[in-house]
Amino acid sequence: MSGNGPAPGGHLYLDHNATTPLKPAVKAAMVQAMDLVGNPSSVHAFGRSARRAVDEARAAVAALAGVRPAQVLFTGSGTEANNLALRGFTTRTVLVSAIEHESVLAAAPDAPRLPACRDGTIDLAALERALAAAASAPLVSLMLANNETGVIQPVAEATRIAHAHGALLHCDAVQAAGRIPLSFPALGADLMTLSAHKLGGPAGVGALILAEGLEPEALIRGGGQERRKRAGTENLLGIVGFGAAARQALDTLPDAAALAPLRDRLECEALAAVPQARVMGGLAARVPNTSCLVLPGVPGETQVMGLDLAGVAVSAGSACSSGKVKPSHVLAAMGEDAAAAASAIRVSLGWTSDDETVDRFLAAWIAMARRSARA
Ligand code: PLP
Question: Among 43, 98, 233, 317, which has the minimal tally of Cβ within 10 Å of its Cβ?
Answer without folding.
Answer: 43
